[in-house]
Amino acid sequence: MNPAPLSGLYAPSLSLLTDLYQVTMAYGYWRQGLQDREAVFHLYFRKAPFAGGYAVAAGLAYAVDFLQNLRFSDDDLSYLGSLPGAKGVPLFPQEFLEYLRNLKFTCDVDAIAEGTVVFGNEPLVRVQGPLLQAQLVETALLTLVNFQTLVATKAARIREAAGPDTVLEFGLRRAQGPDGGLSASRAAYLGGVDATSNVLAGQRFGIPVKGTHAHSWVMAFEDEPTAFAAYAQAFPDDSVFLVDTYDTLDGVRHAIKVARDMRARGHELGGIRLDSGDLAYLSREARALLNEAGFEKVRIVASNDLEENLITSLKQQGAQIDTWGIGTQLVTAYDQPALGGVYKLAALRKPDDSGWDFTIKLSEQLAKTSIPGILQVRRYETEKGQPRADMLYNVAEPLPAALTLIDPLDATRRRPVRPDAPYRELLAPIFRRGELVHALPSLAESRAHAQREVQSLDPSIRRFLNPHVYPVGLEESLHTFRTNLILEKRPQRPA
Ligand SMILES: Nc1ncnc2c1ncn2[C@@H]1O[C@H](COP(=O)(O)OP(=O)(O)OP(=O)(O)O)[C@@H](O)[C@H]1O
Ligand SMILES: O=P(O)(O)OC[C@H]1O[C@H](OP(=O)(O)OP(=O)(O)O)[C@H](O)[C@@H]1O
Ligand SMILES: O=C(O)c1cccnc1
Question: For the Nicotinate phosphoribosyltransferase N-terminal domain, which residue ranges apply (predicted)?
Answer without folding.
Answer: 16-146
